[in-house]
Amino acid sequence: MEEDIAERTHLVGKALLLLYAAIAVNIAAATGAAVLSVQTGSVALVAFALVLFVDAAPQALLALRFREEQSGRSAEDAHSVVERNLFFGLGVMFFLVALYIVSDAGSRLFYHERPISVTESAALAGGALAVLVVLAVVKHRSARELESELMRARASETAATAVLAGLLVLGAAARMLFEWWWADPVSALLMAPCILKRGWKAMEESKAGQPVSTRSARADV
Length: 221
Description:
The protein contains 7 helices and no strands. The protein is mainly α. It is elongated, with a radius of gyration of 19 Å.
């Protein structure tokens, strides 16, 4: 019994360090994308930066849960009302980001506006893609070890953000290789459905007070 508790404590500590690293990566990459978006005029970079900023919040919330578990409180205790309100707010923010993308990218396509440069975008997105993929894999492993649906949900979100980074890389590569001026706004528009899906899942989580994947699993039983 004591060995099980010690093992659980060790795994929670590792998960906390992983979440702290993920939050730091999100904020650093979002800040870099925001700065580059101003310099280059890339709407895809703006979209990526906004998603990264929003995505840091649920990871911080899960870190808080694990911290409370370390202090002796049940991981299922803490602040359910606050959590539901937070996920509702996140859902609204994702919807607003998607609306902004459709509006701004559509305008740029109509007026044939193009980013000044995409080299920096490609470099940042490529680096972010590699790091996000690694984080998603390690988070899934941590979720399996902890048997935590919450960590599994955060891992899936990181994987979804990696998909956005991949779209950003493709858009930048198309502009660099083929000089397609419309590649940047089109890659941003391709992000919109993914972001809307994230918003819908956040809304569902706010209603249930738990990850959508958890509810689905229980419904199957």
